[in-house]
Design brief:
The complex is a heterodimer of chains A (57) and B (368).
Chain A: E1 3-10, E2 16-23, E3 26-31, H1 37-47
Antiparallel strand pairs in A: 1-2, 2-3
Chain B: H1 3-16, E1 38-42, E2 55-59, E3 65-71, E4 83-90, E5 100-108, E6 125-133, E7 137-145, E8 148-156, E9 163-169, E10 184-194, E11 229-239, H2 251-259, E12 262-267, E13 271-280, E14 283-289, E15 299-303, E16 309-313, E17 316-320, E18 324-328, E19 334-339, E20 350-355, E21 361-365
Antiparallel strand pairs in B: 1-3, 2-5, 3-4, 4-11, 5-10, 6-9, 6-11, 7-8, 7-10, 12-21, 13-14, 13-20, 14-19, 15-21, 16-17, 16-20, 18-19
Chain lengths: 57, 368
């Protein structure tokens, strides 16, 4: 799974709510749920040092 | 078979005949293809491309490319209307040692508790399916649960001919009891090609810790020629040692089962997403209701051109490009979404959120 441009999203009350990323070429908005296989893979690649998640604007 | 053996077999059939729902496989007849019915040039990465719940898994790098489709080529007179087809468009006759080219079907732990695996009462399971392959010879099916695996070989005898295969696997009395949760606890691995890392040993036909070299010994390479096609349908995994008739389900029922894992919400122009509202003058929110509870909080995937989405409100139309998921309720039946930097309106106004370009796609995925 190729994950690019990962960046946290903040909601209307300024809380981090999800991760925006391009995964295998498709733009995705990934909730912060470890049961979600995309989020689990993002965390795995972060842990492995392959990607970083940019801070939210 | 002696009369006594026949009676014993019949008794076993009656005892173990599954009642109610028996097929542990979702979309085994390849009826549902929410994402697409045909995708070309696939093979560079793994993924769900066409038929729901059938993951193309690839390990290592390979030159293999294929068109994957939901085909209408089916075994005659068996009641199937669709199949999953791989049409090889770029061959790789020398797979790398680490290659695995596999269809994976993943099943949640809470759906296989009745197998009693990890206990002394572990039940056998029987896998039945139809295959049509240009390539003949030995193929491998593997059941995999966490670190434990078991494999069986079968033979495709005739090129480009539908053949029905039935394989019974012992229950797994070893390992840990299957966790009763919504995670991936059982994989049916349907091999189509494999490198030597997975085929250089002796096939493990009993449950083991899973030595890689023993997992797919003898597997032919179904992608060694651009003349090759390989098709599957009628995949059924049921408890017991007897193969029974395929459990045909209605399309609506199968679709709902698939939507636990993937929901194609929008595909094309003038398709409603939801009612939305301006939280501030530069931020809109909307709620998406899922047709069935999803397995977990889903990923929202979207695509479309710049300004491909629109909120219509108070006689005006504000376009935007990006969609963001915010919260999902605990039953995974609805999600809030928003855009907070590409719209301009009046706080408090409501409107309808719509896909306004033919290239727009929005989907929600909680697949395994």
């Amino acid at each position: 799974m190729v994950i690019e441009n990962a960046k946290y999203n903040k909601n209307k009350v300024d809380e981090i709510c999800s991760v925006q990323a391009t995964i295998d070429g498709i733009t995705m908005s990934v909730p912060l749920d470890t049961a979600n296989s995309d989020y689990a893979e993002i965390l795995r690649q972060v842990e492995a040092g392959d990607i970083t998640i940019a801070a939210a604007d | 078979m002696s009369k006594a053996a026949e009676l014993a077999k019949a008794g076993e059939t009656l005892t173990n005949q599954p009642s109610g729902r028996k097929n542990l496989v979702t979309n085994g007849a390849m009826q549902v293809a929410q994402r697409s019915t045909s995708e070309t040039g696939k093979g560079a990465d793994q993924g769900y491309f066409t038929v729901d719940r059938m993951l193309y898994f690839e390990n290592g790098t390979t030159d293999v490319r294929f068109t994957q489709s939901q085909a209408t080529d089916v075994p005659t007179g068996e009641g199937f209307a669709t199949s999953l087809k791989f049409d090889c468009t770029t061959a790789d006759a020398s797979l790398a040692s680490d290659n695995q080219l596999v269809i994976k079907h993943r099943i949640e732990g809470q759906d296989i508790q009745q197998l009693k695996w990890g206990t002394s009462n572990a039940e056998k399971v029987t896998l039945c399916f139809w295959i049509k392959s240009t390539k003949t010879g030995t193929f491998i099916i593997e059941l995999s649960r966490e670190s434990r695996k078991i494999s069986q070989a079968y033979t495709v005898s005739s090129s480009d001919t539908w053949e029905k295969k039935t394989l019974t696997f012992d229950g797994d009395t070893g390992g840990s009891v299957v966790t009763n949760d919504s995670a991936n606890r059982l994989e049916i691995n349907i091999y189509m090609g494999v490198g030597t890392n997975y085929s250089s040993g002796t096939l493990d036909t009993a449950w083991t810790g899973g030595t890689n070299a023993n997992r797919a010994v003898g597997q032919v390479n179904a992608f060694d020629s651009t003349s090759n096609n390989i098709l599957f349908t009628g995949i059924q995994l049921e408890i017991g040692s007897q193969a029974t008739n395929f459990e045909h389900r209605s399309f609506g029922e199968e679709l709902a089962l698939c939507q636990r894992y993937f929901y194609q919400d929008v595909k094309g122009v003038t398709q409603e997403i939801s009612v939305g509202w301006y939280y501030t003058s530069s931020a809109i929110s909307w709620i998406v209701n899922f047709p069935v509870p999803m397995r977990a909080s889903p990923t929202m995937a979207y695509s479309g051109p710049t300004d491909g989405f629109t909120i219509y409100r108070d006689g005006a139309a504000d376009n935007f490009t990006a969609l963001t998921i915010e919260n999902v309720n605990y039953q995974y039946t609805r999600a809030s979404c928003f855009n907070n930097n590409q719209v301009s309106g009046t706080a408090g106004q409501a409107g309808i959120v719509r896909a306004t370009n033919a290239a727009c796609l929005v989907s929600f995925s909680a697949d395994l």
